[in-house]
Amino acid sequence: GPGVNWPIPDGGRIRADIEVQDALQQQSLAQYEFAVLNAVKEVEDALIAYQNEHVRYRYLADAVDANRRAVSLARAQYNEGVADFLVVLDSQRSLYAAQAELVECRTNTTLHAIAVFKALGGGWEPLVSSPGVPATMRSPATAAEDASTTPSDIRGDGGAHPPAGITSPRRYNKTSIRR
To answer: Which of 8, 54, 119, 140 is a plausible cystine mate for 42, CB 3.0–4.6 Å?
Structure first.
């Protein structure tokens, strides 16, 4: 026959269970909000670090170009007998220091770009011909192919190039880097 299901007085256990579930729901919501805010902070921090390092890269590329011109002028002065060889050596030392800083900056820019991609959830592939990307991050064939290449900043061919491994909708050339 028909039945009636009526809760028997249980001293407020049902109400207490509802309050516990409400508290658990509030806790889950707070944890979710914290996770979202933390993720946004990670993305913002990574983007700011990348942007700052990218600006630094542009200034360092200009410094390398200026030091190349200084070496050239010092050699010309030495060849004309106007300056001694110490001036040439000093300008070369400055050039090598600027090039080392540029390489370090390129590495940092790449690492900051990786941090941006990681903060956004990953899913990135390094460029195939990126000598600045560590071999451990590329396929063995690509790493072997790139092992023989040397960045132009070290070769001294005068080219200012964007940090290796960075993909961007904007194309870089010597004039756009100096902006």
So the answer is: 119
Helices 85-119, 13-80: axis angle to 10 degrees equals 160
Alpha-carbon Rg for the chain in angstroms: 29
Check residue 84 and give its pLDDT: 94
The answer to whether the beta carbons of residues 72 and 41 sit under 8 Å apart is no
Is the pLDDT at 134 greater than 70? The verdict is no
Over residues 24-45, the mean pLDDT reads: 94
- Amino acid letter, 145: E
pLDDT for the residue numbered 101: 97
Which tops the pLDDT comparison, 175 or 93?
93
Neighbours of 75 (CB within 10 A): 16
Task: Tell me the three state secondary structure of residue 34.
Answer: helix
- Whether residue 160 contacts residue 65, with contact meaning beta carbons closer than 8 Å, is answered with yes
